[in-house]
Design goal:
With about 325 residues, the protein is an alpha+beta fold. The chain has eleven helices and twelve strands. Residues about 135 have low confidence and may be disordered.
Amino acid sequence: MAIAKAERLMNLALCLLGTRRPLSKRELRESIEAYLEAGSDDSFNRMFERDKDDLRELGLVIETVENLDGEVGYLARRDSNRLPPITIDAEEAAALGLAAKVWQQARLAGAASGALQKLRAAGLPEDADPYGAHSALEPRIPAHEAAFEPLMLACRDRRPVVFDYRKATAARPEQRHVEPWALECWRGHWYLAGWDRDRGAERVFRLSRITGKVRARAGKYTADVPDVVTVRETVASWAGESAERTARIRLRSGAGYPLRAKAASVRELGEGWDELEIPYGHGLDAWLVEFGPDVVVLEPAELRADVVDRLRAVAKG
């Protein structure tokens, strides 16, 4: 059914673009096989009106013209449906090439390559090599998580999803009902921002902690999607990136390199331990728990208590 409709829309678009004079409904019906097979005039009229509206939603400018006899005709003038020439300089071509290289490890690689081929066919200068420019730069955004593609499509189509999610401090995953907003890569990890229906609030989920399949659900969103979804800022805040306070921890030598990268100071204690001063913000306790026995919180006392509580919860299962 979907293929038949796409073919019908294509034939209608070609008829409207290929004519030099307005075509009446009768002429269009006689020119398109699918319309000839319509069982009645009412069935044809409904089909034609739907198809005309669909083409207009896709961006085709269809004019309605009435001749001297009062008969209504339709056409799509080529000058009204032609995009302006595409002009891309060397720097813009280099940026497109770098953007395409970013997705070489994801299923979007084919789409990115296809887009560059279409740009070249539409006028991209032959001497501009999007893939060769700045070859010293090899950006990569890995997308190995199985949840990436279904969540990307769900964000695009505004479709609610259900998945099992394991928090850093939990022994077992739990089901989450989410209205996905946006995906973003931050420090080598993919995160999803969306509306958690069970908690009635915005939440950010790390894709590597999603277990099992992401299942789509029917229905509309129940919460408004923000104009700007600040995934990175939200994750950074939960990780203590924007914190004004500091915490002191002991860290086993040779471990916890992400913590060392954030540290304001590092002091060797000897016997295989170092002392670090790191930013302290909301969610730091959950992050420290991930390092297990390699981290000991010295101060503040409330952070130490939160980490101990989380470790006990994990031990109880």
